[in-house]
Amino acid sequence: MTNHWNDIxxxxxxxxxxxxxxxxxxxxxxxxxxAREKRGAKLINVDPRFTRTSATADKYxxxxxxxxxxxxxxxxxxxxxxxxxxxxxxxxxxxAAFLVNPDFKGPADLDxxxxxxxxxxxxxxxWSYQLDENGVPKKDTTLQDPNxxxxxxxxxxxxxxxxxxxxxxxxxSKEYEEIYDLYTSTCSPEKSGTIMYAMGTTQHTYGSxxxxxxxxxxxxxxxxxVAGGGIxxxxxxxxxxxxxxxxxxxHILPGYLQAPKASQQTYQKYLEDNTPKxxxxxxxxxxxxxxxxxxxxxxxxxxxxxxxxxYDYIGKYDDDxxxxxxxxxxxxxxxxxxxxxxWGQNPAVGCPSTRLVxxxxxxxxxxxxxxxxxxxxxxxWQPEAGVDPASIKxxxxxxxxxxxxxxxxxxxxxxxxxxxxxxxxxxxGDARDDLYIMSELVHRVKHLYEKESGVFPEPILSLSxxxxxxxxDPSAHHPDPREVAKEINGFFLKDVVINGTAYKAGQxxxxxxxxxxxxxxxxxxxxxxxxxxxxxxxxxxxDNSDPTGLGxxxxxxxxxxxxxxxxxxxxxVDLNGKPWAKDKPVIWWDGLKKTxxxxxxxxxxxxxxxxxxxxxxxxxxxLFSPGMTDGPFPEHxxxxxxxxPNLLSKQQESPVIARYDKAVQEKxxxxxxxxxAAACVFGSPDKDRFPIYCTTYRVTEHxxxxxxxxxxxxxxxxxxxxxxxxxxxxxxxxxxxxxxxxRITSIRNxxxxxxxxxxxxxxxxFTVNGQTLHQVGMxxxxxxxxxxxGAIANDLTPLVGDANTMIPEYKAFLVxxxxxxx
Length: 822
Fold this sequence. Notes:
single chain; alpha/beta; Barwin-like endoglucanases; 25 helices; 29 strands
């Protein structure tokens, strides 16, 4: 989240798209309702299905799954055509005035693609800015130059007229116009609009660009950095924010540092590639401090080793290879990955194309599953999974884990608030907490290296692992999470003097501004520096006073970075430091005291001294974003599987989506499929055989892949069966009655899965370019283990991903449904 949960109450208009927040994030609705009660805020919901969120909305409209960019693109076009933009904000705080390389061409010029396309990859040479003699982007603040970002944006989205948008989405033009008018009214400086989204936005082959479209809209309206604004992700797990902060993703190190690539064999090359340079004196270019944060991380892990050396200890991934979910499945299936630790994950249910996942698990030598109950992943070899156990070679270890209330540590919510959670009770039986399991592994592997030597022992033997509780033997295997928190914050490794202030070795580093590139500081995650001081762990704070009245609660827990509750808050004021919205000021400049008041300001200096978007090297919000893999502007493409052509261009799907390797398809696909291996994975289905759009979703009563809820009798009783929801019109066409058992098939699984039919008016047929199309929705919580069981929805989903993040496309694929004749 750019903002935080409490801040939703300050919005004037709230748009929920790609999320059923009332069902899946019900606590968020406390703040939605506060905004409506206190400010008279209006709620917009856009969804393929009429949901609990839709039932509470002031304005509701439908769209076909996978057409979010068409809908938002239409709103961007509406804002530009109607002059519904915050002009001063756009000119001064975004890159709207930047002049782009005149050789750049977009989909309006090239019928659906951007300049530089070479096969399934873009050469971004033309996605660059024109620079002056100092290397600073040239600008036209009148926004009239045909090569300025603003004019390119207008040209790009002029194609997204209302008629075309509604033909693509299947939506109603009157409803769309009312929503466009309402939401773009937040361009007034005293107003703000917030966007709440979730997996319905991201789980597409262009999920990243869906979010980018939100960013473009919010920047045009001046809704970033302000109270009641922002782009606010409703995460699928309560600690997803913490897990990404601390590098659960394959391509990053803690604090969003980049994972080293094979081409970066030296530490200096790594720093050079990842440290942005900028000549604009007003650009803070905060990532210019990259060497300080990377060096401090290496010193946290290997305190007695020079970073030039310890950098060699980190594995390097091949430049053109990614190691996200889909390629991991590929690597397991091909035998390259021999073993897998599966920690609080259930890929046999939660991954795409789960039949292929279970076959890939069978290629492993060993699997370690760490969870509260026996999951489908841990039991993939059992008869319930439809296999002969004697045919499985994989050795499976199931380690019982401690639940959240049975261990101590921190949790970071979507608003970036890191809060301490204390242990309430001991875990049952042999269950152990994650920190213990990790530490035990480290100590045992270290012992093996000490005893037997082995290949490349230095990274293990030199690893700093001193988290024992005070007074305990340093070699104790159960670390103290409070000691881990100290290392995450970081401390001085030697006595130093910085800016005239002396710091002693062992003293906590007060802020990441004081981390050093010379090896004198360590920090396990630089963005968490300032969370622990010499006298307190700020994550434990519980002072609920709020002097600002804006829900900042600066002394409740701690928020990265440096307890700033709204990021990019320098954009909430004009060039004189005065808040755009006087009744909800985030920060403001006190001219007498020569200081900022309110929230922790994003970047120092007096008003007008620095550009507000300090993490972007040129300091401006990016309407044009050359860092994206699949284009600097969001462009509508169809999902990989679609019944209709792309009505905007001849380019049907994104040309750079993350596809699966064909050689591996042939190894892991079902040999019984007559269509062949390629169709098994990608799905180029016969449209007559698989005519129905399908999406997956969640219910309040179950959680993720079900391992935490299907074992609980009360929750299991509330939703005991796998179901597929369909419209009354489709049910009539298929002669299906509510509650009957149906078979759902896709090109990847023609045997199909069984589910109960839930026939409701919440789905309605779509009319897309004159064609009637049906959509259904399935729960993805069920599997073959637990007190309640059911078919696995992801046995049907495609193995294809977003070009930037590689997140799989769970939300739009084609199926068929037939009643099971008994």
